[in-house]
Amino acid sequence: MGSWIKGNCSSNEDIFISLAILILLVNNVQNCCGSPKFMADGTMYARPPSVCVDIPTSLKLCRNVGYTRMVLPNLLNHESLTEVVQQATSFVPLLSRHCHANVQVFLCSLFAPVCIPTPPGESMNGPIPPCRSLCESVERRCGPIMLEHGFSWPLMLNCSKFSNEGLCVSPDVNGSTTAEPPLPSTAPNPVCPPCRIELQRDTLLDNYCASEFVIKIRVKKIKNKKSRGIREVFADKKKRVIYKNGPLDKRDNKKMKLYVIGRKRCTCPQLDDAVTKKPRRGRSEADEHSRSKRGARKKKNKKGGKKKRKKKKFYLVMGRKDGRKLKVTVIHAWDKNKRILNTAARNNFGARDCPSFDSTGSAGR
C-alpha cells in the first residue's frame, strides 16, 4: 500500500506512509495541492480547511481500497459526504469492467483521498493528488469503455490538472510497472455494451444506483443503424413501469426514444432477431417472403381464424440523459421466468440500499 505514494517508503512498515513522506508533505503542500483558494464559475473563494473523516459504508466505489479515513474537501471540491457519495455512485459500474488494474486507486484518490496524520502542532494538510501518469494510464484504458456507452471522458477527471512532480499517488514508484489490460476487442460484430451486462443481483443494484432512470418498457418499434452502431428504440407509451424517473420530463415520457449505442455493426441479442432465416439456394428473399405469406394464408383457412400476432417483448432499461438523448447503459429482455429479475422488481431493485442521507447531510445506508 505504501507503494501508492510516490516517495521513499519502507516495505517493512505497516503504516500507510513513512515519517519522511510526512515531512515532505508538510514542506510541499502548496506545490502538490495548489493554492488554498480556487476558481468556481469565475468566482474565487477560500477553500474550507481540510478535515479527516471516516469513509462511509455507502461509498461503494472505495470499499476495500486499503484505508478507512479520507480528506474533505476532496480533489473534486466536494465539501460534504453527501456530494462525494452521490457523484461517486456513477462510477461504481466502471469497476466491474476491469478496464485498468488501478482504476479504483485512481478514482478514490480523487473522491476519497487518503488521510495522512500530521505531526503534533501542525495544521491539517490537503489531499494528495494522483500522478498524471496514473490518470493518463487509466484514461487510455477506460476511456474507450465509456465511449462505447456513448459518454466521453469526464472533464472532472481531466489529466492535465495533475503532475508527476512532487508528492502524488502512483502505483509504480518502485520502478515496477503494472501490466495494463489489452485494449477493447476489435473482433467483428462485438456485442453492444448495454446488451452484455450480466443479469445478477449485485450488478442490478449497482447499475440501478448509478443510472439516472430505470424503466420497464414494451418496444413499439426499433430503428436499426447497425453500420453506425446505433439502435433507436421507441417505447410504447401505455405499457410502461417507471422504477426511477430521474431527469425524465413530460417530453421524454410522451415520446420516449432510447438510444442503444456501441461499436459499428455491434450486435444486441436482446433486440436483434434470435434466428434469421436464410433463403434457400436459388431463391431470393422476395420469393421466400412470398412463400411465407402464402403459407400463412393456408394456415388461416385451415383453422378458420386469424393467425395470432406475436406479443411484443418487454424490456428492463437503465440509462442516463445526455442533453436530449436518453442513452441506454443496461438492457435486459423481461422474462417472467427470470426469478432474479422479478424478485428485484418487487423490491424496487433494492433502491433502499442506494446511498441515502440524513438531515445533517451525512452519508448513510
TrEMBL record:
Gene Ontology terms, MF aspect: Wnt-protein binding
UniProt record, GO biological process: canonical Wnt signaling pathway; cell differentiation; non-canonical Wnt signaling pathway
Cellular compartment(s): Secreted
Region feature Disordered, mapped onto this chain: 271-314
Residue ranges with Basic residues bias: 291-314
Domain NTR, first and last residues per copy: 192-354
Family designation: Belongs to the secreted frizzled-related protein (sFRP) family.
UniProt protein name: Secreted frizzled-related protein
Gene source species: Ciona intestinalis
Taxonomic classification: Eukaryota, Metazoa, Chordata, Tunicata, Ascidiacea
Gene that encodes the chain: Ci-sFRP1/5
